[in-house]
Write a structure and sequence with these properties.
This protein has 289 residues and is an all-alpha fold. It has 13 helices and no strands. Helix 2 crosses helix 13. One of its GO terms (biological process) is transmembrane transport.
Length: 289
């Protein structure tokens, strides 16, 4: 009996390896399921974009297009999708640049003059927590009086107001990680503030700047309520243009899928380029830059 027990006994190390293997398999299974869950809508959108109109409502439905077509891309672009992407690029890019120009000096003052746990940081960030319906009414009344309604400048101002608090708070947290000794050494060497700003603050704050730019661009690109209330026929951003597909014509899911795929392009390119820049920045800092 003892010999049989010894034969069936599993060594502790083998048991640990087995449990570790089971854990790895479970983690990979969860990650694969999460990836499928996240990519399924995008894959469905891509398949729909290449389906002819007749296949969208065929019975039984087809998973993949039998006769792929590019008509949806041309039609969706011509009926308003192209104009929406153009206007969104103008407004989102301009507001992002303006947020960075205004936000970096404010973030530097916040990081160097006020404590991280102070109330001012929370007060600035709380402005971003306002429901959009609260400021949009005031913007509408002011823009009507100032002649900024249905204009690029008005929408850029509104988006900058929406994203600037987040940019300031985020950049301030990055600037706090930069030791003051770097700035003190530059002042001792006689470097003017602008030289210190360009040679020390900007390179070391690059990860924070890129992160703030990505978030600001994404929020401005996807914003709908401000563009719906503050614009008419002259400025039509992408979310508003996509809504027009449902309001003024019978929904064409192929065109919606095509414009949706095209609309993801600028953000994907931005994230890809910024990711590479972030990696280079972190590598340079770890290398003793």
């Amino acid at each position: 009996m003892s010999a049989l027990t010894q034969t069936l006994h599993v060594p502790p190390k083998a048991k640990i390896r087995t449990e570790g293997l089971v854990g790895v398999v479970l983690r990979h299974a969860v990650l694969i399921a999460l990836v499928i869950f996240c990519l399924a809508p995008i894959v469905w959108l891509l398949i729909t974009a290449f389906k002819p109109y007749g296949e969208l409502f065929s019975s039984p439905p087809t998973l993949f297009p039998i006769h792929p077509t590019l008509v949806n891309f041309a039609a969706g672009w011509s009926v308003g999708g192209g104009r929406g992407i153009r206007d969104s690029l103008i407004v989102a890019t301009s507001s992002t640049v303006l947020c960075l120009i205004l936000g970096f000096p404010a973030a530097y003052a916040l990081a160097r003059r006020f404590a991280a746990h102070g109330q001012l940081s929370f007060t600035i960030l709380s402005l971003r927590m306002l429901p959009p319906i609260v400021p949009v009414i005031g913007f509408y009344l002011m823009f009507q009086k100032l002649g900024l309604y249905d204009s690029y400048i008005g929408l850029i101002i509104a988006y900058t107001f929406m994203n600037l608090p987040l940019v300031i708070w985020l950049l301030a947290e990055f600037i706090r990680q930069i030791p003051r000794s770097y700035e003190d050494a530059a002042r001792i060497d006689g470097a003017p503030w602008f030289r210190m700003f360009c040679d020390i603050l900007l390179p070391l704050s690059a990860p924070g700047i890129m992160t703030a730019a990505i978030l600001s661009m994404m929020f401005a690109w996807n914003e709908f309520l401000f563009s719906l209330v503050l614009t008419g026929d002259n400025v039509i951003t992408l979310p508003k243009a996509l809504a027009d597909f449902f309001l003024f014509q019978e929904p064409n899911w192929g065109q919606l899928g095509a414009i949706g795929i095209v609309a993801m392009g600028p953000l994907l390119i931005l994230c890809y380029l910024m990711q590479r820049y972030l990696i280079r920045s972190f590598t340079a800092e770890l290398g003793g830059r």
